[in-house]
Amino acid sequence: MKPDASPYYFGKDKRIFEEEGIDLELIVIRPPLGITALQAGELDYSAAAGLGMRAALRGAPLRALMFIQTRLSFTLAGQPGMTGQKIATVGVSGIGSLAHYAALAVMKKLGRGGPADKVVYITTNTTAQSYAVLVGKAVDAVILSPPYTSMATLAGYADLGNAFDMRDIQGGFVARADHLQQKREQAKSMVRAILRSLDYIVKNESEVVGYLQKEFGLDPKVAGDSYKIIKQVLNTEGDVEEPVLKSVIETMKKDAQVTADVPLDRIADLSLLREVKAELQSKVKK
User: Fold this and answer.
1) pLDDT tens digits for 136-173?
2) Out of 3.90.1170.40, 3.40.630.30, 3.40.50.2000, 3.40.190.10, which CATH number does the structure's domain 75-162 have?
3) CA–CA gap between residue 180 and residue 187 (Å, rounded)
4) Is 257 left (phi over 0), alpha (psi -120 to 50) or beta?
5) Are 103 and 82 in contact (CB under 8 A)?
6) Is the pTM of this model over 0.85?
7) 3-state class of 242 per DSSP?
8) Residue range 210-244, pLDDT digits in tens
9) Which residues, in sequence order, are bridge partners of residue 63?
10) Disulfide check for 31: which of 21, 48, 89, 274 has CB 3.0–4.6 Å away?
């Protein structure tokens, strides 16, 4: 289970969404297809905040409502005995993806990535497939996220560094603008449930580790290590500093070759999140 998906799965299991009046159905779908389905009205919400924001930059009527991760949870894992200077091939889920950017950032920390470097980045399509090509010795290194990170290190693969300090949008909550107008209270309930799930996850280590073992068949050590990464990168506030958001959007604009000024509120609408947080804080004070 990826960190950005944890509040949805765990919150559903703990009946947090049910308590908020939400009958949550989780549909596993490739993020680009999910954003297309969201725009078409076939889904109410998406967890692919980054892709949703990129679609909004191109004119799609989508809004990011909160951010579950504003720090990346990727680690560069290499073949046993691999060092940064030896790496010639790196597997990433997609060229231009966050995994690719994370790989570039970690390689830069290792002193690689200059004009003279001849590192080849290979698309694997999924993190699971990245792990498979590492095990199959098809590449020198790959970018992984939990639980594959711990699976790799326990199997003897080299931990070459991570991107936990890299600020970007890896997961969140996205909706159509018209849905927010028509079902604002439902969207508020979703945001409230996600915030409650995030808070529960970071405060109940043993319970969450047990859940990871049970639901995903993880080895106790893998579950424990995965939880440590999840807790480290989760954004329990759901919000993000405006300079960070602006920087992320500027990078997205460059990638999409968008030169026009795009107002922040056409990409993200954090007013609903802040409204929910104010209501929760008011209840605590009472």
Assistant:
1) 999 999 999 999 999 999 999 999 999 999 998 888 99
2) 3.40.190.10
3) 7
4) left
5) no
6) yes
7) helix
8) 999 999 999 999 999 999 999 999 999 999 999 99
9) 175
10) 48
